[in-house]
Design goal:
The complex is a heterodimer.
Chain A: E1 2-6, H1 7-17, E2 21-29, E3 40-45, H2 63-66, E4 70-77, E5 80-82, E6 90-95, H3 97-112, H4 118-125, E7 127-131, H5 143-146, E8 156-161, E9 164-169, H6 213-218, H7 224-227, E10 235-241, E11 249-255, H8 276-295, H9 305-309, H10 316-330
Chain B: E1 8-17, E2 22-28, E3 38-43, E4 47-56, E5 60-66, H1 70-76, E6 83-90, H2 96-99, E7 103-109, H3 113-125, E8 132-139, H4 148-157, E9 159-164, E10 175-176, E11 195-199, H5 202-214, E12 222-225, E13 241-242, E14 245-246, H6 247-250, E15 253-255, H7 256-259
Parallel strand pairs in B: 7-8, 7-11, 8-9, 9-10, 11-12
Antiparallel strand pairs in B: 1-2, 1-6, 2-5, 3-4, 3-6, 4-5, 12-15, 13-14
Helix pairs in contact in B: 3-4
The chains are: A alpha/beta, B alpha/beta.
The structure holds flavin-adenine dinucleotide, iron/sulfur cluster (SF4) (2 copies) and FE2/S2 (inorganic) cluster.
Chain lengths: ~325, ~260
Amino acid sequence: MAYKIIRERFDQYLQQLKKDYRLFAPVVLNGKGTFTDTDSIRYQEINSIGEICFDKKSNFSAKEVLLPITQTLFYFTEDNWSEPKVDDKKLLLFVRSCDIHAIRRLDDIYLRNGFKDPYYKVLREKVRFCLMECEQGFENCFCVSMKTNTVEEYDMLARPQGKFVYVTVKNSELDFFDGKAIEIEPKFPQKNMTEVKLPRRLNQDIAGSPMWQEYSARCIGCGRCNFVCPTCSCFSMQDIFYKDNANAGERRRVWASCMVDGFTDMAGGHQFRKSQGDRMRFRVMHKVYDYKKRFGYHMCVGCGRCDDACPEYISFSNCLDKLGKAEEADQ
Amino acid sequence: MSNIYLPFTSRIIKIIQHTDIDYTFFMEYRGAVKPGQFFEVSIPKYGEAPISVSDIGDNYVGLTIRRVGVVTNTIHEMKVGDSLFLRGPYGNGFDVELYKGKEIVIAAGGTGLAPVKAIIDYFTEHCGEAKSLTVMAGFKSSKDILFRDDFKKWEQACDVTLTIERVDDDGIPCRSGLITRYIPDIPFKNVDEAQVIVVGPPIMIKFTVAEFLKQGVREENLWVSYERKMCCGVGKCGHCKMDDTYICLEGPVFNYTKAKTLID
Ligand SMILES: Cc1cc2nc3c(=O)[nH]c(=O)nc-3n(C[C@H](O)[C@H](O)[C@H](O)COP(=O)(O)OP(=O)(O)OC[C@H]3O[C@@H](n4cnc5c(N)ncnc54)[C@H](O)[C@@H]3O)c2cc1C
Ligand code: SF4
Ligand code: SF4
Ligand code: FES
């Protein structure tokens, strides 16, 4: 059902939802950006639609909610484990089309790649999506090339417009509006400023290409491209103990990055991918080649966040485009 | 739902010291486990490390652990009766059935001997089940030799070539140089059928495999076990991935026809 309602009514609705749901949406954090005087847009818990940033792309994705940067797996004492308690509430995430596609990628790794991950699973089962529309996409977005510009798997849609909010509710569990029903079609971008000629016949031969070495010179291995990516899913484990009670502690996992030193280090000092060029090759191949071999579609959803975040202006979409055009030229 | 990250406790029932930095810990364990599989071994507050099984018994497994860092140093401090935390076994392991009735050659470099020890034990204890068994193990120096007592047992039951890079006479019979030098001497009866397992550091695997191929061993009869950085052991953390393959899930044991397609 779809409705046109005034903003105050929508905020009341959110308050009602808050009894059973925690609401997460992109919020502008003033002055928290990478550079002085810049803002950061990140997922935070919200209370009202006014807090949500609709007109800019978030720097970080909703991945933060399902897969926290650091997550306690369990607490231990001498020889006892206890798992952290999980809030009973469900989660409503305000996300864009590409972000919903990205979570499907996380599902592949965390629920379908061999064993199921119990921490991800409990949170994932609670998630409902509220679609945020993108009229034409933002800088560096290339979702149209990646075919993630449209989506059907959302539970509701919210489109603020002046004093009103247009709402579609597809999941009856979230539908407690009253009033006259109207028709709303979700708007999806049909063209981006960035277009990518996707490589279609990539294979391992490209590993030897000299093009990767360019990245060895430019990339500083900061890993930002991994951390902002909504589909990057790697982590490392850490144990910590408490200063005041050395017998107790916790085991955690923290986001890890294939672009950063140490990711492949073995005992004895062997590293498998030493140069940044090799790491870039590994990351790119994962996003648009080997992941597809395993799961049937590309991992990258074209959100462009990696390009937004790179301090060295390294462009992932440009790299894909180069691979695609090289293939074309080869023919 | 069961939590794949929660370990269970296991008591240390025996410890054998092989070298200054390699000890085998015999751990209480009841359950199925195959040679080539590994456990995630941990001590709370220090962390976890993947360790292969080197011995498989009715109520125990052996873990041969080299002291190289935070977790392994701490494990080396432990005594019989203490407990470690385990989860697993993980990985595919070696399929013993596959080698039965064949000429088998096992070539291991350094600590690479640990993950294949349980297969060597199996075929030396069930001598009739393989046409022949040749074990080749290479170490840097005699100080680094693992499983000295076991070598004596194995020599009764199969062909053993023990090599060290620099010969320094300490009484144990061995040859000098790398094991690759002795591969041409293996008296294969039917090289087309011979099954060959190669485990060791990446560079050793590379040259050893090349030498076996040169001798006519078929790619599909060659098996390697890959060691990669691992965290989770269960296909989530991404550290071990090569191409679209997760070494922790689909490996660490690979047929060479597959292994040769995996680029780091
Ligand atoms: C499938 C598999 C089987 C293994 N079997 C054995 C075995 O039977 N016996 C044995 O002694 N070792 C084995 N290892 C290696 C062992 O896991 C590492 O030596 C151990 O994790 C180091 O842990 P640490 O905390 O003591 O070292 P750290 O203090 O964490 O690090 C010391 C060094 O080890 C490297 N390292 C850290 N974690 C790993 C890891 N997971 N894999 C490889 N290197 C790592 C670090 O990069 C660093 O160079 C195996 C590894 C794998 C992947
Ligand atoms: S690789 Fe870049 S463009 Fe693709 S999903 Fe990740 S952050 Fe977005
Ligand atoms: S953000 Fe840029 S500089 Fe940093 S690791 Fe990624 S590609 Fe390299
Ligand atoms: S060890 Fe984590 S994915 Fe293989």
